[in-house]
Write a structure and sequence with these properties.
The complex is a heterotrimer of chains A (about 100), B (about 300) and C (about 90). By secondary structure, chain A is mainly alpha-helical. Chain A contains 3 helices and no strands. Chain A has one domain. Chain A is about 85% helix and about 0% strand. In chain A, about 20% of the residues are buried. Helix content of chain C is about 80%, strand content about 0%. Chain C has about 90 residues and is mostly helical. The chains are: A mainly alpha (about 100), B mainly alpha (about 300), C mainly alpha (about 90).
């Protein structure tokens, strides 16, 4: 049962990765792309880590997966903010229709 | 090999080849550097596929991380590339014979390579493992059986640092001009974790993937991140302490190598009953030294007092 | 179709080496040459590790060689980049 739930979570995570990538390719400027990519990918990675944790039964592995997710959240948020700041500093205005 | 794994490998390698081409030939220099960094990350995945986790660790932090930082720092200091609009040649038919020749050559080499008897010293290494003093074969090769190579490699790194420093002050690194409060906060959060993982890898090197090289790489990544976030080398560290830290690996290595000669052994032939201890000492010194040397390569020039006063 | 194990990696290694060597000769910008050199090294490393794997079990000697090689490649790159920056400053 937990194997099935794990597989479902991983597939869901992949869908979120896909949507984030579509956003990256289709959105008009840096800021909207970042918005799509950072949110969707963080969630997707969380889902995939949760799915993998369900697949493994060792507590240490599950703890490591959780740690990976937390570290990626922190560094991903910082990277997004850095990229956005750099873009602003280079004079890129946010896209307005 | 299952078809799925084959497909994954094929996709991975295809991406690597395309990124490598972009990394060399992309129209825009910045794009080339970023492609190259992604190429390094995918190479780390390839090392995992080849069952070489210790190389993957080193590649992810050095090949993708530190090299990328160095390249970007250099790019910021170079004038924009003057590209003469190259006459856009059509792919003429003259390419075809060369392409055919290349393919034929690759094919012959591949056939020869696959027909070779399984090369290598794997069996000799595994036969000698009981006397190595460590359980991890890679660490045993690096710090015991072929410690000579590692000694020279550390000497090469030290020479690179000396060469770079002799070019003048801070050739490569430049203080960040971007006001970004989140980066220092991140570094404050992560730096202890970097130190912890460095020592974990050093300890783990005795019996699994890890050891001096990945540990040094991780330490350097942490230090460089701190430098990028605006930290400066403290003034009391720039003189003698830093030089000792840079030379510690090579010095310890040499002392151990010559010391066992006093024991009546050959150069670098550890007496098996003390091998464990000696390797641990060398590994810790080498790991820390590699970390500091990589950071010094990033600094690019001798950190001086004027530099630390500038903040 | 069954390829011998490692064929794909060997092919990729050959291609990477070719891309790097070609770039090293044809590119004019020095930074591109450094990038090409790094691609070449990766090709060689890939070849070494793949060959060390094709026997029975994993041969640790190529692993150790590649580990040292990566660090040496980084040192070379750093010195080359420092020299490039110096050269650029000298030419107005």
């Amino acid at each position: 049962m937990s194997t099935f739930a794990g597989a479902a979570l991983i597939v869901l995570g992949l869908l979120f990765f896909l949507s984030g990538t579509v956003g990256l390719l289709r959105f008009p400027d840096v800021f909207t792309r970042l918005h799509a990519l950072s949110k969707a990918d963080t969630l997707a990675l969380g889902l995939i880590c949760a799915g993998l944790a369900l697949h493994s039964d060792a507590g240490a592995v599950q703890l490591k997966l959780l740690l990976i997710w937390l570290l990626v959240i922190v560094s991903g948020a910082t990277c997004s903010s850095l990229i956005a700041r750099a873009a602003l500093a280079h004079g890129i205005r946010p896209w307005q229709r | 090999m299952p078809a799925v794994e084959m497909l994954f490998d094929a996709l991975l390698l295809l991406c690597m080849v395309v990124l490598a081409w972009q990394g060399v030939h992309a129209r825009n220099m910045f794009r080339a550097v970023v492609s190259f960094m992604m190429f390094g990350l995918l190479t780390a995945v390839a090392w995992v596929r080849l069952e070489a986790p210790d190389i993957a660790l080193a590649e992810a932090s050095l090949g993708a991380g530190l090299t990328g930082v160095l390249l970007l720092a250099t790019l910021g200091r170079l004038a924009p590339e003057r590209r003469r609009p190259r006459p856009r040649q059509a792919m003429t038919l003259t390419v075809l014979p060369w392409l055919a020749l290349g393919l034929a050559g690759t094919w012959v080499l591949l056939a020869v390579t696959l027909a070779l008897p399984a090369p290598g010293l794997g069996e000799a290494v595994f036969a000698a493992m009981p006397e190595a003093g460590v359980d991890s074969p890679v660490t045993a090769v690096l710090l015991n059986f072929r410690a000579w190579d590692t000694l020279l490699e550390i000497a090469v790194m030290l020479l690179a640092v000396i060469g770079l420093w002799s070019l003048g002050q801070d050739v490569l690194a430049s203080p960040s001009t971007l006001p970004a409060p989140s980066l220092p906060a991140l570094v404050r959060l992560l730096f202890p974790l970097f130190l912890l993982s460095t020592f974990y890898l050093l300890w783990r090197g005795g019996h699994g993937p890890g050891g001096a090289f990945p540990a040094g790489a991780l330490l350097a990544a942490g230090l460089v991140l701190a430098l990028l976030a605006g930290a400066r080398v403290p003034r009391r560290m720039t003189g003698a302490p830093m030089r000792w830290a840079l030379g510690a690996g090579l010095l310890t290595f040499l002392i151990v190598a010559v010391g066992v000669m006093g024991y009546g052994e050959a150069f670098f032939a550890y007496p098996p009953e003390h091998a464990s201890l000696l390797i641990a000492v060398v590994e810790i010194a080498a790991g820390l030294s590699i970390g500091v040397m990589l950071t010094a390569l990033f600094l690019g020039g001798e950190p001086t007092d004027s530099r630390s006063e500038r903040r | 179709m069954s390829l011998p194990p490692g064929t794909l990696f060997l092919l990729a290694a050959a291609l990477l080496f070719a891309i790097g060597a070609h770039g090293l000769v044809t590119c004019r910008h020095l930074l591109r040459k450094v990038l090409a050199l790094n691609v070449t090294t990766t090709g060689v490393f890939l070849l070494l590790v793949t060959l060390g794997r094709s026997g029975t079990g994993v041969d640790p000697v190529p692993h150790a060689m590649v580990l040292t090689g990566i660090v040496v490649a980084l040192s070379t790159t750093a010195v080359a980049l420092g020299l490039i920056v110096r050269l650029e400053r000298r030419q107005p």
